[in-house]
């Protein structure tokens, strides 16, 4: 093969020792299962080694398949989301699909515009991490029979596959841990209640610690956590432990505790949620509920692939286990 032209399907077939038609089937996600797994792997390796890039646009025009999936993320600056995206990409790539990633900043108008732009590029389906409990855009998507899966959050619509962490159990573990340390004045800095994560975690907290103070945060951000923690200590100054709606809210609470001349965990214990990257580098290192976010992304991609292969299959919800990770931000009550 000369180096002044792009490698062709013939080159790949020759390198793998197979017929051109076999190579074509192996490199197309829609027909890969027609080729023996070992042969398909050999062809894929040969294509990668030669630098062969299938012309998915031309194929898409012929077959109405683009092997592309739209991925909607609310905030890529939140360290929670890159592991989810990595899990999505890893699973999609294994199956010959490409992820087209957009960041919506949690803005409904921007999300709608990005969704339309991805549809115009003929993506085959969507993985959505932006879901709100009531979500007009996704309601329309269900009505138009667009294939999509939600990850990390769920939406109050029938027939939508979802991958979520077991938030109720995670919060229950957090409260039980604080109680085991002797805390009785426990408060919750809750996530936004228009998101399933905020609602489920609040409900679990109220079940585990009835009549305890709750302050709702306007967003899952450090700034919102600071505002809510300031409000909490103004009205419930005797609080000795906080369960935060997520790690960024916990970070805001730590800043307020310090600003008020108190210390964590000596005066106030704090538990976060998600175990986002670098939570172990907080000062003090954050006790938090670990959710397997890479696995969440991979499972979300898997559910969408299943839905694309069999659009009539029943919608599944995958519940991933949550695990309390104890570090330095919790200690026995004084």
The radius of gyration is 24 Å
Instruction: Count up the domains.
Output: 3
Number of helices: 12
What is the CATH C-level name of the largest domain?
Answer: Alpha Beta
Average pLDDT taken over every residue: 93
Q: Unreliable runs, pLDDT <50, ≥5 residues?
A: none
Name of the CATH architecture of the largest domain:
3-Layer(aba) Sandwich
Q: Encode the helix/strand succession as letters.
A: HHHHEHEHEHEEHEHEHEHEEHEE
Strand content: 15-25%
Give the full name of the CATH homologous superfamily of the largest domain: Response regulator
User: What is the overall silhouette?
Assistant: elongated
Give the class from helix and strand content and strand pairing. alpha/beta
Q: Name the strands of the widest sheet in spatial order.
A: 2-1-3-4-5-11
Query: How far from one another are the termini?
Result: 75 Å
Sheet of most strands: 6 strands, parallel
Oligomerization state of this entry? Answer: single chain
* CATH-defined fold name of the largest domain: Rossmann fold
Query: Quick one: how many beta strands?
Result: 12
- Percent helix range: 40-55%
InterPro entries: HTH_LacI, LacI/GalR-like_sensor, Lambda_DNA-bd_dom_sf, Peripla_BP_I
GO molecular function, one term: transcription cis-regulatory region binding
Protein name: LacI family transcriptional regulator
Keywords: DNA-binding, Transcription, Transcription regulation
């Amino acid at each position: 093969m000369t180096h002044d032209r792009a490698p062709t399907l013939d080159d790949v077939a020759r390198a793998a020792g197979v017929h051109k038609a076999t190579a074509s089937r192996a490199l197309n996600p829609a027909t890969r299962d027609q080729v023996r797994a070992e042969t398909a792997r050999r062809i894929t390796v040969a294509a990668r080694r030669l630098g062969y890039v299938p012309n998915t646009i031309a194929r898409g025009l012929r077959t109405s398949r683009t092997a592309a999936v739209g991925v909607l993320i609310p905030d890529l600056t939140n360290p929670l989301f890159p592991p989810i995206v990595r899990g999505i990409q890893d699973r999609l790539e294994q199956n010959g699909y490409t992820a087209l990633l957009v960041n919506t900043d949690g803005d409904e108008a921007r999300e709608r515009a990005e969704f339309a732009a991805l549809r115009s590029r003929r993506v085959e389906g969507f993985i959505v991490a932006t879901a709100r409990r009531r979500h007009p855009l996704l309601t329309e998507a269900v009505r138009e029979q667009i294939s999509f899966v939600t990850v990390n959050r769920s939406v109050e619509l029938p027939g939508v596959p979802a991958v979520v962490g077991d938030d109720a159990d995670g919060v229950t573990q957090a409260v039980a841990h604080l109680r085991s340390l002797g805390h009785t004045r426990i408060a919750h800095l809750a996530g936004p209640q228009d998101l399933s994560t905020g609602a489920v975690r609040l409900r679990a907290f109220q079940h585990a610690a009835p009549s305890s103070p709750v302050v709702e945060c306007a967003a899952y951000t450090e700034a919102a956590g600071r505002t809510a923690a300031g409000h909490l200590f103004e009205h419930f100054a005797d609080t000795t432990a906080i369960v935060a709606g997520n790690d960024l809210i916990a970070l805001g609470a730590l800043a307020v505790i310090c600003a008020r001349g108190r210390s964590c965990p000596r005066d106030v214990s704090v538990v976060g949620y998600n175990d986002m990257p670098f939570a172990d580098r907080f000062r003090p290192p954050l006790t938090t509920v670990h959710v397997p976010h890479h696995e969440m992304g991979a499972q979300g991609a898997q559910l969408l692939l299943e839905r694309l292969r069999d659009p009539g299959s029943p919608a599944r919800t995958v519940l991933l286990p949550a695990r309390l990770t104890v570090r330095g931000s919790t200690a026995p009550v004084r």
